[in-house]
Amino acid sequence: xxxxxxxxxxxxxLGNDFAVLDARANDFQLTADEASAIxxxxxxxxCDQVIVLEPSSRADVFMRILNAxxxxxxxxxxxxxxxxxLVAAELGRERVTIxxxxxxxxxxxxxxxxxxxxxxxPRFGWRDIPLAKEEPDTRAISLAITLPDGRVLEGPSVANxxxxxxxxxxxxxxxxxLATFGGALEYDPIFPERANISLAEVxxxxxxxxxxxxxxAGITQACGTAACATAVSAARTGRTGxxxxxxxxxxxxGIEWRADDDHILMTGPVAHEFEGTLTLSGxxxxxxxxx
Length: 291
Ligand SMILES: N[C@@H](CCC[C@H](N)C(=O)O)C(=O)O
What we know:
The chain contains 4 helices and 20 strands. With 291 residues, it is of the alpha+beta class. The strands form 2 sheets. The chain has an 18-stranded mixed sheet that branches. The protein binds the ligand N[C@@H](CCC[C@H](N)C(=O)O)C(=O)O. The site of ligand LBFN2T5F has 18 residues, from α2 and α4. This is Diaminopimelate epimerase.
């Protein structure tokens, strides 16, 4: 590791949890192995993603996102809300901007403790997802998967909202054990950069129930970008309107796919868990929890 002591904050968005490290004043780079060690729930801080805050010349902060397996990615909806809340509190403002590898996001804090992030415009072209081969209609691609119990999942919608998502529409999301087959779908050859895999059930034209297997992290309590990708895919396929409530195991995210400019507005809560210090000594990581 390129650091010996660094403080962290443990936060979550609807149970999707993060170790947030601050490299703005104290410059360091994490390797994939170091991020995995921090994410380890037995020996590290324990989290789905490691978030590193860095200086930005285009926004109030740059947010680097590393999955629990160490892979670096372009977007994380729940972490965007957490970082938005942190930086807004630091600056004493209600609106802040966050640069990510996928672009600059605008975050707004409302008086009710919720944070709204403009997640930008979704992309649906097969090269944008990306997919390994041309698919003429990304509202339902030609992928079909036979599950170990013989049932078939087919025709997922796909979308890129800064990261790749595949959404399988089913009648009952609880009738499937996503943990047993999510990993194989994440690595299906149709997804050259792997993908986040969701099962989605339409409750009514304003409500969708969602379970997510996250690329690089496995099953999580909530995934903000999956909520965005699901909402836009639901609207695109005529399953819902453009304003929906996405119900995840960890709670509810509100999504509005704005008609004026196609930007996705994601609204949800953030939570502070505890703070602490990471120390590297003799090549091993120790975690001291301070509050
Ligand atoms: N939990 C996040 C998504 C994190 C990245 C994702 N696993 C990927 O690899 O694309 C969210 O709330 O969006």
